[in-house]
Amino acid sequence: MRKILVAVVAISALTLSSCSKDTRINNKLDGSWNVTKFEGSTIGSGQSVTITFSKDKKGKGTGTQTISGTGVFDGTSSFSYEVADEKLIQTTVISGFTSVDISTIKEYSKDKVVLVNVDNEESILEAK
Questions:
Q1: Domains in the chain, ordered, with CATH?
Q2: Which contacts of 121-125 are long-range, i.e. CB under 8 A and separated by 24 or more positions?
Q3: Is 10 helix (H, G, I), strand (E, B) or coil?
Q4: How far apart are CA 26 and CA 54, in angstroms?
Q5: pTM of the full predicted structure?
Q6: Is the dihedral of CA 19, 23, 25, 29 positive or negative?
Q7: How far apart are alpha carbons 107 and 43 in whole angstroms?
């Protein structure tokens, strides 16, 4: 009986610590960020990418991404997101097409977030 109780407590602690870490990450993401590196490529001179996250209380939220200076992809798009198991899951719907991007959150602080996508390409967000 004692072994079962220890196992239940250990699993509960692991689950709670995971959730609270995701909550801390979501709290740090809340706000506006300049993207200095996107999927392995440095943002060029005269170009800018800004991402704004607006969190809710459940590890989820909405946001916008604004791109300028590229000539091709310039504009603003909206997305919804979730932080789960130290991953950022972004869902964007443009003209009826849904795109889901999943990145591992490699590093996070109030000043910098480092994301790594499924192709092992790094993106760096720096606080505005």
A1: 2-127 (2.40.128.20)
A2: 121/39, 121/40, 122/37, 122/39, 122/40, 123/35, 123/37, 123/38, 123/39, 124/35, 124/36, 124/37, 125/33, 125/34, 125/35, 125/36, 125/51
A3: helix
A4: 9
A5: 0.80
A6: positive
A7: 19
Q: How far apart are CA 54 and CA 103, in angstroms?
A: 18
Distance CA 69, CA 75 (A): 10
Tens-place pLDDT, residues 25-41 = 999 999 999 999 999 99
pLDDT of residue 18: 52
Mean pLDDT of 15-23: 68
- The Cα 27–Cα 17 span in angstroms is 15
The secondary structure of residue 121, as a DSSP letter, is -
Amino acid at 15: T
Q: Give every CB contact of residue 43 below 8 A, 6+ residues apart in sequence.
A: 35, 36, 37, 49
The 10s digit of each residue's pLDDT in 98-114 is: 999 999 999 999 999 99
